[in-house]
Amino acid sequence: MLKISNLHAGIENNEILKGINLEVKAGEVHAIMGPNGSGKSTLASVIAGKEEYEVTEGSVVLEGENLEDSSPEERAHKGIFLSFQYPVEIPGVSVTNFMKTAINEGRKAKGLDDMPAKDMLKMIREKAELLEIDRKFLSRSLNEGFSGGEKKRNEIFQMAMLEPKLAILDETDSGLDIDALRIVANGVNKLKNKDNAVIVITHYQRLLDYIVPDFVHVLHQGKIVKSGTKDLAHELEEKGYDWLKQETAV
Amino acid sequence: MAYTEEELKKELETKEYEYGFYTDIESDTFPIGLNEEIVVAISKKKEEPDWMTQWRLEAFKAWKLMEEPEWANITYPKPDFQAISYYSAPNSKPKYDSLDEVDPELLDTFKRLGISLDEQKKLAGVAVDIVMDSVSVATTFKKTLAEKGIIFCSISEAIKEHPELVKKYIGSVVPQKDNFYAALNSAVFSDGSFCYIPKGVRCPMELSTYFRINQAGTGQFERTLVIADKGSYVSYLEGCTAPSRDENQLHAAVVELIALDDAEIKYSTVQNWFPGDKNGKGGVFNFVTKRGICHTNSKISWTQVETGSAVTWKYPSCILKGDNSIGEFYSIAVTNNYQQADTGTKMIHIGKNTRSTIISKGISAGKSQNSYRGLVQVNSRAKNARNFSQCDSLLMGNDCGAHTFPYIEVKNKTAQIEHEATTSKIGEDQIFYCNQRGIDTEKAIALIVNGFSKEVLNKLPMEFAVEAQKLLEISLEGSVG
For B117-158, how does the pLDDT look when each residue is reduced to its tens digit (9 = 90+)? Predict the structure, then answer.
């Protein structure tokens, strides 16, 4: 589904990603771990097409299509979803209204008419239930005054609504207490199927107890320095990242 | 903007004006300049009674001694008041024979605002068939109003038909000498609207100048007088979301509202005059004095959406004279390119238990400057007066400015005044967040701006609100790129 080859990218002549190779197939869950500043969030932003970042070499290919010239919204229409580490506030725009706009813009891009209000409401109700979201929450301004947990739950709610092919969860576990973590992870697990894929970016292996990855990659200084199975996450938890830093320095 | 100033001038030279009150005139325009003879001549031309002529002359005398105010946060070349013609009769010839001849960009804007074909023709100056929908609508409309005893006509007509009302109330809220532009308006006002709601009558429909489109065009010096008698209610809509292109660079209107005991007036405005081109050339200067007086237990609510004009100077205000009276001001002011707006309100608390609310939303883009200027004054005998003010500014890009000048004068210890202000910028992060959800940048800005303006948009009558929302989108198109 997603093939990243020799990806180099940076911001203002400062190279952050230094040759990433990664292949994600449909039905798989990949975890990307790594210390602060290793380039995890940059990788997520580059896949989503954030324009601040300049790709200097290599490619990101989604289902055989090179994304080089695709704008962020086109990538979204193609099925890429990014759950933000720090979701922004949009005052005065309700969660419902925001979702309605996003879904209908996606449909427009595919040449479809707006989703009938009845269907939209039904879908909102179903997905809200899935994430144990209170109805009142949906009429609040997007992320305004939301707690850390509410913000993340809202991100996964949006993922549920948009039904992406590839979802990237950027530090979705940060700022979550254990109950919220369980709800969010349950949501993700229920949304997962053989046709979509998930990339989980995380600092800790805690989330991976709930969302079990097929592969774990360790990112360090802009490169994937080690790949393995879920055991690798445990090893990292035990030994810390220093162990890896030393190993790669050698 | 596809218009060059030259083209615009050409178009407007032949623009149809539909005053409709003067059937005898082919075309005549007074010589430029302003003096007593001109004032008398205007009054005579309009067949006004002597008291009206004298009233205009008093205003003119006062105006001569006044100076153009300079305290507002705007810069513009001072108009030469002796280089303006103060009376221009309607030119009854339509400019175009069919819509096909009209600038497609203008038509596109009309279409996107959802304006009907007949209206489009009207607004663009196309010859309209004699039988058109709005005529029959207007007739039914007038009949319904007449049954309730509501008077809704041009101010010229009112001066002739209802002199007792006009004489009693004109200048009672905005005196002739109130300020430079109000004095000028009082001397030379061309026309405007008059509305009287009798005691205890609830006006059954929104009164809109739209229904008078056959009878009155917007003059350069418009004068509006709305009187809501005891216990009555009226909702009045002014303006139009369609872009108005006007040959008159200077506009100085006066609006007076009188809410007698237990009455309520809701006055909504959408202003979309030509703001000048992308380089700041051309555009209307809009210097407006709007004020209402509230008697006991009455309420006046101003709602405005301002997207047009090159320069705006406007402070719809409430004098809360009667006990328990309420004043409200809800405003969205958008400036783009080189537009300048200095707008806000005055809430003068005189009576006991008076309350006022101010919600002002300023949106600046391009190289524009947007200022909120507001006064909350609580007089010594205004016991338990309360005010809540909220001024929010939204900036787009790095070259625009937002300014807030709140003045608070309190002379009674029991007053409660609250003021909140925020300034925010549409961030790249917000845009990227929307983009990532599949919403393109134009749409994202529209979404953010609508969210920002929601509290005010909600105050507009339904159909007006929908149009205003679209207007905001169009006004800000291409402002972040």
Answer: 666 655 555 444 333 334 445 556 777 888 899 998 888 889
Domain ranges for chain B: 17-311
Cα–Cα distance between A198 and A189 in angstroms, integer?
Answer: 10
* Tens digit of each residue's pLDDT (9 = 90 or more) over A189-239: 999 999 999 999 998 888 999 999 999 999 999 999 999 999 888 888 888
- From the first residue on, what is the mean pLDDT of each consecutive set of 10 residues in chain A (250 residues)? 96 93 96 91 95 94 94 96 95 93 95 93 92 89 92 94 96 87 91 95 89 94 92 86 71
CB-based contact, A90 to chain B, within 8 Å? yes
Q: Quote the pTM value.
A: 0.81
Cβ distance B433 to A109 less than 8 Å, yes or no, reads no
CB contact under 8 A, B440 and A50: no
Helix (H) or strand (E) holding A167: strand A166-170
Residue of A nearest to B394 (CA): A91
A168 contact B CB<8A: no
Mean pLDDT in consecutive groups of 10 residues from the start of chain B, 481 residues: 43 31 41 84 89 94 88 81 69 57 64 61 48 46 84 88 94 92 91 91 80 42 93 87 60 93 94 75 84 97 88 92 96 88 94 96 90 94 96 89 93 94 89 96 90 89 79 74 47
Give the angle subtended at the CA of B155 by the CAs of B152 and B161, to the nearest 5°: 75
- For an interface test with A, the pick among B361, B432, B459, B480 (most A C-beta atoms closer than 10 Å) comes out as B432
Interface of B with A in 375-434 (CB under 8 A): 427-430, 432-434
Ordered domains of chain A (ranges, CATH): 2-249 (3.40.50.300)
Q: Which of B434, B450, B452, B473 to mutate to test the interface with A (most CBs of A within 10 A)?
A: B434
| Inter-chain touch A101–B443, beta carbons under 8 Å | yes
Whether B437 and A91 lie within 8 Å, measured CB to CB: no
CA distance B123 to B83: 27
- Name the nearest CA neighbour of B332 among B467, B192, B179: B467
Q: H or E stretch including B450?
A: helix B441-457
Closest C-alpha to B138, from B158, B121, B152, B159: B152
Rounded to whole angstroms, how far apart are CA atoms B175 and B55?
Answer: 11
List phi, psi (to 5°) of B187.
Answer: -75, -40
CB B234, CB B200: distance < 8 Å: no
Query: Which residues pair with residue B126 across a beta bridge?
Result: B96
Condensed to tens digits (0 to 9), the pLDDT of residues B55-77 reads: 999 999 999 898 888 888 888 87
Is residue A44 within 8 angstroms of chain B, CB to CB?
Answer: no
Task: Give A82's contacts in chain B (Cβ within 8 Å).
Answer: 436
Nearest to B448 among A71, A90, A106 (CB): A90
